[in-house]
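Lab notebook, bench 4. The sequencing result for the construct came back, and we need a structural model before the next group meeting so we can plan mutations. Quick request posted to the team channel:

Model the 3D structure of this chain.
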Amino acid sequence: MRTLIVDDEPIAQEIIQKLASKIPFLEIVGSCDDAFSALEAINKQQPDLIFLDIQMPGMTGVDMLRLVQRNGAQIIFTTAYPEYALDGFELNVTDYLLKPIPFERFVQAVNKAHIWYLKHQQENVPEDEVKTDREFIWVKEGKKLVQIRLFDIVIVRAMADYMEFIMPESKVLVHITMAKLEAILPSPTFIRVNRSTIVRQGAIRSIEDLQIETIMPDQERISIGPSYSDAVKEYIKEMF
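Done. Here's the predicted structure in token form:
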């Protein structure tokens, strides 16, 4: 999820960045220290999630939220003042975090946002783009529909506005975003291991020094991104 931090305190920004770095599905796309620069950043970056401080000079987070075109972006208020909870309810924010923010509470809030995000992404996938059932996935390659067995997929790699499905015997290039594909491929069967790569768990031959070797020896080893390593380790741990 593309994530924007809005807080006038540099230390508060740094704390949220550190917390967010532990969550694999969060990608920080910017930080702003006032509401005016945040309005510009929201229009430019089109974030999926905004951590928004309330007490800021010039314009409060509440006032900013009443002005901004959210375009589906979810809001998590971050503040030291519990009296603003009612404003959050009225403005339909996803959650309300009181500073100092415990990590467990942070995880709870972002998981709530992520569930909504995945559901929204899945609802907005065009019917002719990708369809899936328990065993197969239908993808649109150019003008034709191609059926791919989930068990055959080894790697899915982002290439600009496309995703490349890599199988032992073939490759298929599909015009779809990473976010939409993540909402469709079943978890934990498929694991996102870095910003541009998803791997089928059963296709992993070995992991060494945060490098994945798949069952396809001709494929280069895949680096596990720093923000994804904890999630990958957790998936692997569940197998034993």
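Helices lie at 10-21, 35-45, 61-67, 85-90, 103-123, 178-184, 229-238.
Will bring this to the meeting.
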